[in-house]
Amino acid sequence: MTNHGKSLLIACLPLIILGCGGSGSSGNTGGSGSVGGSTGGSGSGGGTTTPTPIQIITNAQDYSPAEINEAGRTLADENYSGNQNPMVLTPQAIQQFVVDMFGEQGDTYLTLPSVGDEDYTSRVNGNGSVFHEFSCSYQGNVQYTGQVDENYLGNLWLNYRSCENEHGLVLSGSVALTVTALTEQEISYTINYGGLSWQIDGQEIELYGTENYTEKLTTAGYQVTGTQYVSFDLGSYSVLLDTDVDFSINNYGEFSAIALSGDVFMGNQGQVSLVYTADDDLPPDAYTGKLILTADTRVELEIIDNYLRITQDTDNDGEPDQGSYAWSWYNYMYETATPAEFVNLDILSKPPRADSVIPGFSDVYATTPVEVSPGYYEDEDTPESQLEISYNWYVNGELIPEEHGSILPSGMVVHNDILGVSMVVFDGGMRTESVISEFIVSDSPAEVTVVNLPETIAAGSTVQFTAQITDPDIASSATTASLVAGPTGATMDADGLVTWHVPGNFLFPEQQYDFTFGWPDAANSETQRISIQATAANTNTFVRGNIAIPRGLDSLRIGDFDGDGENELLSTDSHRAISLTKVTDTDFESKWFYSGELGIGGDIISLMASDFNGDDQTDILVATEHGVSVITDLAHKAEVLISDNVHFISAAKLADTNHDGTPELIYVITEDDYLTSPKRLNIVSLDAPDSILFSIDFNGNNEDFAIANVDDDPAMELITNARLVYDLDTGENQWLFGNGGLYNQVEAGDLNGDGVAEIIVANMYGDIAVFDARSRSQLATAANANICDLITYDLDNDNVVELIANGCLLSDMTAYSLSSNQLITEWELEVDSRRFTSMIAGDADNDGESELIWITDSIEPVLASADIVDGVAIANATRNSTQLLLFSAAGWANYLPGDERAVFYVRQSTTIEGTSGSRVVSIDDNGKVEIGDEVSFSYHYSTIAATADYNNDGAGEIFIPSSGNTEGLVAAVQLYDNTVQWSYGGNSDDLDIDIGVIRASDMNNDGYQDFVYNDGSQLLAADIQNQLLLGSHSFTDRIHDFVSWHDASQNYTVVAQGTRTLLLSHSNSIFTELSGINQRCSRLELFNYDTDAAPEVLCVEENPDTYTSDTETFVVVFEINNNTLTEVQRTEMPTIFDIAVDPSTQTEQSFLAAVRESGSIYDNDTVVKIVNYNNKGHKIWQSSNIPGRPMPHGMKSRLGPNGLELLLSFETAMYWLR
């Protein structure tokens, strides 16, 4: 019938009030609805038997329109069996009724499907009969049978057979269509339903009854009038509609007037009379409109002042007396979980607005409390401060009555429950509930409950505890757990008792040991871990590194920090590194490097020294941008005193401000790290750092200050670079000294020996000035530009301090004494420094005389020093500081027989002369560090080296990448004398050089270690002992790593290159590719995964995002079967920087991994842990946090005399753990 311009889909429009697609504002004469019924029966119109209503409908062409309509009405009555008394109109019943009548498909079952969509006019034969089967859009068909006249008017039977024209709505059953007018000006038709059926969300629906419509063309559009008398049979209840429809649609396809009225019988709930009028649309899309419901009471719903106002005449006196509000029709129908309770009209106000809650979680588990935050809310006529916020929690649609807070405790839901939560806003009269946000509860991991498990344990002790495993989603599921993995020697008996004899020592002073438990039924593979923190007094660990060179002030200290009775130099790199350096007459030797976490964020701004814990040992206090920590034991982590990740600390010092013999902490704090930001200076006790003893505003661009007694009273004074002097007893400002603005530097010291300190100030580009606070006068000045640091120190041991000004920007260091109110130059010393640097004086080398130590950075920053002789500083040219960067563990080797050391290759080094070549650094059995001479000017990026004894003479060598000092690109260097034994590879100036991995491996099984390395995509092997090139092989992509070994039959090599991993054999100087797989590996190692003698290959899958995100890493195990790599295990793990195999056992070996804890490879704040995994990938133990970025191939392991030993290497530090 589309040739008439209007289709019979207009039939759905009147039923929009019952939810047909929600709205007819588009003017489309089609609609979707959803109501269905039983499949219609078939019958005939002949014979003497009285036809049934179903037979009349299925043989519509044989009956008059009146008979068909009567059949439809009869079926509607027969299929309604509900209550006919007035419905009780509660707020909940009213809301549900509106949704049922006006809701969209899926929200209500009372929607009519679109029928009669097919154009039957083209299927009429010469005698007016119609008999044609139309295919439906998605599936099924509909059979048209009937008789029409020349104007296509008549009766048709539509037999729907699993017909899906509207997605998700599959129709079956009988419909009689009677068309009585079909012109350009008027369409009139009747639909009679004889049990049309379909399903919505599993609910079977059957539709019976009659409806007729007349559509007439008008000058403004068209007008539709009609009646409906239909019933919906939904099995457990039924609904009957007896309604009239009258609406107009303009030429733009928009509603211009709507009038709906009639009676609705809602099953067991009873009867409601309704009247709806509007001039724009139907709910929920209407912005106007009034709906009157009459049942046990009269209810009016009307849009007034852009709000939907609901009122009820509860006492039926003709006047409404209670009511509530909603924001709109849509808000009332779909955004209000529970309609607002009615209140008396005299207190009724505009409703609060309540949007959905903001979830504070991604998944919901039975074991975890669920927390939400309020969504947006407001109230037009109530201040926000007077609104009350609460929450409703629902489980599977049922309200939890006692829970109305923002946190739902754990244990309230189980797997596959639907948890709902809404926000409720109350303004004192109206209570608005937001839309319910729903979440499906996830499957909670199993929980392991342990009894008698200590929180911490000591090395050498015995631990016993019991373990049960429980499924939190299943009641009474607790059972004895099975021990899947645990530390070596841990056992579990049949009663669940775990016994473990803790090792007598660990690699790290603190390690976390893990026990992995599972279900006793092996079919359930789920596991859970519990952890125990263990400590050991490990004195066999050596951590050495670069001498930390500060970039700022207050970063050098001299004292006995390790309790050996001798002074050391304490320094920081002004980032996160802290080191102790042994100073001798001729050298600066690395003695200790802090390997632990500070527990506070930000860069280090100052180092301080004090006996913090009263054990007569000097402790280290560290101030960073976000806190202060103290190190009381060089082998253990720091204790946090102050932590503040919001504010910034810009300066910190210690001083005894109250004469109690214990120093206080003085620090400057600001809201951000801008120099001009407002600041505050606080003084706190180290015993109670949270309690501020003294505080003042401190708004200088620089944050320098000094503490001293500068007047005649006993109180100490605070002197700031803002020219202010404060009495620390009273807190009063006693003096604003000097003229002009701020000073860069402020110091205090008794320069004239009168027992009272003078105030000394200086600017970087200005004079030095000395002030006397007692006379409030300036005593002396001295012209000395470019001052980076000021200190006072008794240089000549006369009990009177001198002033030392450290120059920068190539200025000299100058010492002054104060005599007759004049600053007298005692000596000058060239320091050759360009930047702000720390300076310290004291007996650093323990010779009974003082030294001056500072930073010189004419090339790169290094330590420089001078000896104080008779009060005069004499530069010590022989005491050299060598700065090292990019450590890489090469392994262990004998320098000479009986002199075994841990050996590290260092790619960059800097001395006072400014050279920057590669060096070999060793640590002997006593922890002494020896720095070798330069072995290479390495202009390339390789940092990987390997120790060897290629000629088996008992004196070790190191295989290194080489450039500059040798003729080749790689070299073998004798360790004890740094001589090059062999080199190979061509022109060292070749910019295409890409030396990568270097390994020492016996490639030809002759008992001598060979030099194996890759240059970009080429693999090369050389027999140094016999001066032979054993072979080379080129690949399509750069080589990431390789491993080689010999089994009983041949020599194997596995190469990871590009995105593939290849298996090769080696024989007669030829590498032959045997097979390959599509697997990208960043690291390869050989280890024995199982119990046979043949090794497997351990692969760390390289992920392009590994170094820049938190992407997980896969560790894959391959074995060799018939010259093919076969994957036997794949385990997902955190990002791994490097690995080493644990050789403690020969079979079922575990491995160690440097695992990223935070940061990335490009992040200066990278933190890692060393984790021990068993062969199955279960975690056995892990170290505490280690700051720094591990170097590639920088982990080496071996089985030493006392067990496992491990070498670690970072950019600025090296570890020998044993």
Give an overview in words:
This protein is mainly beta and 1218 residues long. Among the domains are: 53-344, no CATH class; 353-441, Immunoglobulins (Immunoglobulin-like, Sandwich); 447-535, Immunoglobulin-like; 881-1012, no CATH class; 1035-1217, Methylamine Dehydrogenase, Chain H (7 Propeller). A 15-stranded antiparallel β-sheet has the order 1-2-3-4-5-6-7-8-9-10-11-12-13-14-15. Strands 27, 30, 33, 34, 84, 85, 86, 87 and 88 form a 9-stranded mixed β-sheet that branches. It is extended and about 140 Å long. The model is unreliable at 1-47 (pLDDT under 50). Residues 27-54 are annotated as: Disordered. Residues 27-48 have a biased composition (Gly residues). InterPro entries: Integrin_alpha_N.
Summary tags:
extended; mainly beta; Immunoglobulin-like; 15-stranded antiparallel beta sheet; 91 strands; Integrin_alpha_N; 1218 residues; single chain; nine-stranded mixed beta sheet; 4 helices
List the helices and strands and how they pair.
Elements (H helix, E strand, L loop, with lengths): L52 H6 L6 H14 L12 H12 L26 E7 L3 E10 L5 E13 L2 E14 L3 E15 L2 E16 L2 E13 L4 E13 L4 E12 L4 E8 L11 E5 L3 E7 L2 E7 L8 E5 L2 H6 L8 E2 L7 E3 L3 E2 L10 E4 L3 E3 L8 E8 L2 E2 L7 E2 L9 E9 L4 E3 L3 E4 L6 E5 L4 E3 L3 E9 L8 E2 L1 E4 L5 E2 L4 E5 L8 E9 L8 E9 L6 E4 L10 E4 L8 E5 L5 E6 L4 E6 L10 E7 L8 E6 L2 E5 L7 E5 L4 E8 L8 E7 L8 E7 L6 E6 L7 E4 L8 E4 L3 E4 L5 E4 L8 E5 L8 E5 L5 E5 L4 E6 L4 E7 L8 E6 L4 E8 L2 E9 L8 E4 L8 E6 L5 E8 L2 E4 L7 E12 L5 E11 L7 E6 L5 E8 L9 E3 L8 E5 L8 E5 L5 E5 L10 E7 L8 E6 L2 E6 L4 E7 L4 E8 ...
Parallel strand pairs: 27-34
Antiparallel strand pairs: 1-2, 2-3, 3-4, 4-5, 5-6, 6-7, 7-8, 8-9, 9-10, 10-11, 11-12, 12-13, 13-14, 14-15, 16-19, 17-18, 18-22, 20-21, 20-23, 23-24, 23-25, 26-28, 28-29, 28-32, 30-33, 31-32, 33-34, 33-87, 35-91, 36-37, 37-38, 38-39, 40-41, 41-42, 42-43, 44-45, 45-46, 46-47, 48-49, 49-50, ...
InterPro entries: Integrin_alpha_N
